[in-house]
UniProtKB/TrEMBL annotation:
Region (Disordered) location: 1-21
Pfam families (UniProt xref): FCD (PF07729), GntR (PF00392)
Keywords from the named record: DNA-binding, Transcription, Transcription regulation
Molecular function per GO: DNA binding; DNA-binding transcription factor activity
InterPro entries per record: GntR_C, TF_FadR/GntR_C, Tscrpt_reg_HTH_GntR, WH-like_DNA-bd_sf, WH_DNA-bd_sf
Span of domain HTH gntR-type: 17-84
Biased composition (Basic and acidic residues): 1-14
Protein name: HTH gntR-type domain-containing protein
Length: 239
């Protein structure tokens, strides 16, 4: 007998917490990768049936996703995947550029061979994803590369904030990569290599210049995409 959508079944704190984490992780991944389109409905009953658990952990997962800004509860109490607010991109780009700079500068001022090895590993993963034309892997590897640089820089507040900014930008990056038919130019790989070289050399000013240039070209190309395909972008962001 299947009572997966029944809230009356008692759950231990451990099982409920595990269920909440499972639902949160899966939905977060699907939202950030655009497998769930902006504006898609998220019905608690259907989700509880899908995941084979009661509505309580589903509801708690949706609350966590809401605090992340990834889902929105409407006045009629229905929950949807948050739409993409293209009007908010300029301040987002300002914050993103600042975090590229402070984390790359900070990394260039520190020495930690173990963390440097992690950065190089993340770069290898990014290059492999680019060569495989795997957009989802590119976005994930790019995030982990820059988070690894932030971790080397050593400020956990910067690392946490930068990670969230990169997560918020995943859906924008997914739209942008689609304009290349997921064939991202190797220029991005080379820019990462230049940043690694500056960090390893301890050249703080060069690391800063490279971070500014890296952020600027990404911002410029996304702005060009939005301007060029505004009708398509708005349709995706606001279904």
């Amino acid at each position: 007998m299947n009572d997966t959508a029944d809230d009356s079944r008692p759950e231990t704190p451990r099982s409920r917490g595990s269920g909440t984490q499972t639902v949160y992780d899966r939905l977060r991944q699907e939202i950030l990768s655009m497998r769930l389109d902006p504006g898609s409905p998220l019905d608690e009953v259907r989700l509880s049936e899908r995941f084979g658990m009661s509505r309580t952990p589903v509801r708690e997962a949706l609350l966590r996703l809401s605090s992340d800004g990834l889902v929105t509860t409407l006045p009629n109490r229905n929950t949807i995947v948050s739409t993409i607010d293209f009007a908010s991109l300029p301040p987002y780009f300002d914050a993103l550029t600042l975090m590229y700079r402070v984390t790359t500068r900070g990394a260039a001022g520190r020495r930690d061979p173990a963390r440097m090895a992690v950065i190089r590993q993340r770069q290898c993963e990014f290059e492999a994803a680019v060569r495989a034309h795997d957009a989802y892997a590119m976005i994930e590897a790019n995030r982990e590369f820059h988070v690894a640089i932030a971790e080397l820089a050593g400020n956990p507040y910067y690392t946490g904030f930068f990670g969230r900014l990169l997560d918020e930008g995943r859906r924008i990056l997914r739209l942008y990569y689609s304009t290349f038919d997921d064939r991202l130019p190797l220029q991005y790989v080379e820019e990462h290599e230049d940043m690694i070289a500056a960090i390893e050399a301890g050249d703080i000013e060069k690391a800063d210049r490279l971070a500014i240039a890296h952020a600027a070209q990404i911002v410029r190309q996304i702005q060009d995409y939005v301007a060029r395909d505004m009708h398509k972008a708005v349709a995706i962001g606001n279904p």
